[in-house]
Amino acid sequence: TKAALVLEGIDFLIRSPTGLPAEDKGAGTFLTAGQAPLHVAYCRFSAKVHDYLTCIASSASITVVRNCEFLRPASVPIQLYPRSRTRCVIENCIHAGAYVLAIHDHGHAEDAELCLKHNTFISPECPLIHFGHIAAPTKPLRVEASRTLFDTTKIWQIVPSMSLDKLLQPAEAE
Q1: Which of 90, 91, 86, 99 is nearest to 141 (CA)?
Q2: What is the pLDDT of residue 97?
Q3: Which of 9, 51, 50, 59 is nearest to 31 (CA)?
């Protein structure tokens, strides 16, 4: 969608669009939000498709996900593409599966912010948050995490120079 969107109290059971058995791979993305605000609350996402790619892909100026359950929902339930003045809030959510969040930073000239509050994130296999820096150095992405339980062996997976031919130097990465 490219218009502002509010979703509340919806139970999403994600299946393969072709009706293939649960062990088949690659069903795609359930919801893609453009630049307009996205608010998702009191929703449950679960998948019957192995390796479903994404529940929510957002380039929205404001992305708010509150009081939601992600129960083996996808490889990456939430993918963010931050821009200048982007704000993402994930609050009071439960996640049990692989990654909870992927951030693909294509660069932004002004501040962008991620706020994680009162969540429970469980992933026995993967880092919970994948951060891929794709563009030239920009302003930092501010991250605030409070009262959030991370039950995993790794929290952050940082790829500082995705799609570049060389690894960024420390001064460039800061």
Answers
A1: 86
A2: 79
A3: 59
Tokens (6 digits) for 32:
């893609």
The gap from C-alpha 81 to its chain's centroid, in whole angstroms, comes to 9
Residue 107 buriedness (CB in 10 A; 0-12 / 13-18 / 19+): middle
Strands (E), the chain: 5-8, 11-14, 29-33, 38-41, 44-47, 54-58, 62-66, 69-71, 76-80, 87-91, 94-96, 101-105, 112-117, 120-123, 129-133, 141-146, 149-152, 156-159
**Residues 25/59, Cβ–Cβ less than 8 Å:** no
Spatial neighbors of 164 by CB under 8 A, at least 6 apart, are none
- In percent, the amount of the chain with pLDDT more than 90 equals 24
Q: Determine which of 58-67, 82-91, 95-104, 123-132 has the lowest per-residue pLDDT on average.
A: 123-132
Q: What's the pTM value of the predicted model, to 2 decimals?
A: 0.81
